[in-house]
Amino acid sequence: SLELAREFADRAVSLDESEPQAHFALAIVHIWQRQLDQSIADARRAIALDPNFADAYGTLGNALHYAGRSAESLEQYAHMARLNPHFPPIYLFFMAQDYFALARYEEAAQLLERRLARQPDSDVSQVLLAACYGCLGRPAEARAAWQEALRLNPAARSCPTRIRRLSSRWSGASARPGSRSDLAPPRGRTGSFGLLSKSGYK
What is the phi/psi pair of residue 119, to 5°? Predict the structure, then answer.
């Protein structure tokens, strides 16, 4: 359970304050407990103890990501990728969300395409890719990505309303490239794409 994980992480830190893995574990627990400021502090402590700790940079990026601090999150993911070029492909999705939040849709789309090349069954990547293509004024590709998401997971139709609107609205009309209006996911701790990536989608 999460409570047990927190207990063991706290104990690890109390046994050896200088162990970066202990602070890293505590940072992960705090993310799941939505204590993001504390998670950021834990991850920074792990990095201070071991500047070559790639996973700690990734976790710091995650905490910043869920806190809505997209530009800072991307900086930490870059450190992670430099230290570990073979990082798990789920991070490509996290990075894409951050680029999307910054209205950098082309870069977001490229990352999602990379993830799908490695994990073609990622329905959530197809959902976000459809939104990216729509924001770039590429409705045919948006439509194809959305249909692929539905093929992979018909439950995508019931994904959070904001995401469904972003992804499916492009079936008939193109977007104005760079338009912000209601296209960017809400900033802050509970952005729609962040919730989707935590709720059973791949």
Answer: -135, 80
Q: How far apart are CA 93 and CA 19, in angstroms?
A: 30
CA-to-CA separations, 9 to 16, 44, 130, in angstroms, rounded? 11, 16, 39
Q: What is the pLDDT of residues 166-177, one digit of tens each?
A: 555 444 433 333
C-alpha distances (whole Å) from 176 to each of 125, 138, 163 are: 22, 10, 18
Structure tokens at 64: 């910043």
Burial of 83 (0-12, 13-18, 19+ CB in 10 A): middle
In the block, tokens 């939104």 appear at 131
DSSP string across 74-139: HHHHHHHHHH-TT--THHHHHHHHHHHHTT-HHHHHHHHHHHHHH-TT-HHHHHHHHHHHHHTT-H
Mind giving me the DSSP string for 161-174?
Answer: HHHHHHHHGGGTS-
Pick from 63, 114, 88: nearest CA to 129: 114
Reported as a single tens digit per residue, the pLDDT across 23-58 is 999 999 999 999 999 999 999 999 999 999 999 999
Q: Which residue has the higher pLDDT, 194 or 151?
A: 151
